[in-house]
C-alpha cells in the first residue's frame, strides 16, 4: 500500500467572510431563524392571525416586530423586537399581573376614567386589576430551531 499524504491549508480570509459577512451563509441562516421567530411572535399576539388573545385594537404592535442583523463584539447576531413603547406592558403584564403585583389606582384623581371604545361614554373605577402578560417574544423563541415543529 502506498502511503498518501494529505495536507490542509486553512483559508482564513474565506473563513472570516463566511462567519462575518452580512451576505454570507451564517448571516443568511441567522436571518432565516429571525424571520421564523418574528412570524411566530406575530401569531402569538393574536387577532386575526393566530392563536393568541383575540383583542387587537390596531395591530400596531404586531406590525412593529422587526428582524435586524447586527455585528457585535462576538460576531453576527440577529435581533427580533419592537420599538413600540407599550410592548413591555403587553409582554410582562400590568397591575396585579405585572412586576409590582398590585392593582392600578389613580395617582392624582379620585377615579380612573376609561372611554368605552366606539362610543362617547366613560367608565369610572377606583382601581383595576390590570392585564395578564402575553410573553409573545419569549414564546416565539423555539421557532428559531430549524426543521422542528414550533
Descriptive notes:
Helix content is 27%, strand content 15%. The protein has 150 residues and is an alpha+beta fold. The model has no long low-confidence stretch (mean pLDDT 89). The protein is built from 4 helices and 4 strands. The protein is elongated, with a radius of gyration of 24 Å. A hairpin with a 2-residue loop joins strand 1 and strand 2. The longest helix is centred in the N-terminal third of the chain and has 20 residues, at 25-44. The chain has helices spanning 12-20, 25-44, 60-64, 87-92, and strands at 66-72, 75-81, 112-115, 122-125. The N and C termini lie far apart (52 Å). The strands form 2 sheets. A two-stranded antiparallel sheet has the order 1-2. It has a two-stranded antiparallel sheet with strand order 3-4.
Summarize it.
Helices cover 27% and strands 15% of the residues. It has 150 residues and is of the alpha+beta class. It starts with 11 loop residues before the first helix and ends in a 25-residue tail after the last strand.
Distance between the termini: 52 Å
Average predicted local confidence, pLDDT: 89
What is the count of helical runs?
A: 4
Radius of gyration: 24 Å
Note the beta-strand portion.
Answer: 5-15%
Placed side by side, the strands forming the largest sheet appear as 1-2
Helix and strand pattern: HHHEEHEE
Could you name the ranges where pLDDT drops below 50 across 5 or more consecutive residues? Answer: none
Shape: elongated
Query: What is the helical fraction, as a range of percent?
Result: 25-40%
Number of strands: 4
Characterize the main sheet: 2 strands, antiparallel
The secondary-structure class comes to alpha+beta
Amino acid at each position: 500500500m502506498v502511503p498518501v499524504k494529505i495536507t490542509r491549508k486553512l483559508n482564513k480570509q474565506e473563513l472570516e467572510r463566511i462567519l462575518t459577512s452580512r451576505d454570507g451563509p451564517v448571516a443568511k441562516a441567522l436571518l432565516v431563524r429571525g424571520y421564523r421567530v418574528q412570524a411566530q411572535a406575530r401569531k402569538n399576539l393574536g387577532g386575526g392571525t393566530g392563536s393568541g388573545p383575540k383583542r387587537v385594537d390596531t395591530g400596531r404592535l404586531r406590525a412593529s416586530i422587526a428582524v435586524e442583523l447586527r455585528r457585535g463584539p462576538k460576531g453576527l447576531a440577529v435581533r427580533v423586537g419592537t420599538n413600540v413603547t407599550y410592548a413591555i406592558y403587553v409582554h410582562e403584564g400590568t397591575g396585579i399581573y405585572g412586576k409590582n403585583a398590585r392593582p392600578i389606582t389613580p395617582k392624582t384623581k379620585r377615579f380612573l376614567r376609561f372611554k368605552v371604545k366606539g362610543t362617547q361614554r366613560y367608565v369610572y373605577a377606583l382601581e383595576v386589576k390590570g392585564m395578564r402578560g402575553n410573553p409573545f417574544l419569549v414564546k416565539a423563541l423555539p421557532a428559531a430551531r430549524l426543521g422542528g415543529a414550533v
